[in-house]
Amino acid sequence: MDPDVVILAGLFGAILSLGVAGYYYCAAFEQARTWFPAALQGELAARYAMDTLIWTPAVPALARRNYLRSHVYAGVAFACLAMVAFEHASSNAALLFGGIAAFAIALTLRCWRKLRSSA
Predict the structure, then answer these.
(1) How far is CA 45 from the centre of its chain?
(2) Measured between alpha carbons, how far is residue 58 from residues 55, 82, 92, 106, 117 in Å?
(3) How far is Cα 36 from Cα 95, in angstroms, rounded to an integer?
């Protein structure tokens, strides 16, 4: 396969996946923020408390699923960037993005386990 096609497909997939991940994160944030304690409903405080407080039973299940979806699409985006780096860039960049993708996938699996235990 032509390397330029792989690079373009990987970059397009990364951009699209990051956009979808951002959409799902913002949707989860807006759905969950109203259920946080009053001291943590501010914009900045809620963003810092999001990962911990979204798994409380008071938060709607749709917000938790949207949060998991944002992690899934972010992991896909970093995997696409690792593919692009492996195809086009140096081996150091490929290892760096591969490590970031593995870390993102590990965080996604952790969120999935939390979602399954909260259901």
Answers:
(1) 19
(2) 8, 37, 44, 26, 14
(3) 38
Task: Encode pLDDT of 50-109 as tens digits.
Answer: 888 899 888 999 999 999 999 999 999 999 999 888 888 778 888 998 999 999 999 999
Per the CB < 8 A criterion, the answer to whether 21 and 74 are in contact is yes
DSSP 8-state class, residue 1: -
Tokens read off for 79: 């995997």
Q: How far apart are CA 42 and CA 50, in angstroms?
A: 11
pTM, rounded to two decimals: 0.89
* d(C-alpha 86, C-alpha 91), whole Å: 7
Letter for the amino acid at 112?
A: W
Contact of 49 with 29, CB cutoff 8 Å? no
Unique residue bearing structure tokens 């972010």:
74
In three-state secondary structure terms, 67 is helix
Where are the chain's structural domains?
Answer: 3-118
> Residue 43 CB: number of other CB atoms within 10 A?
8
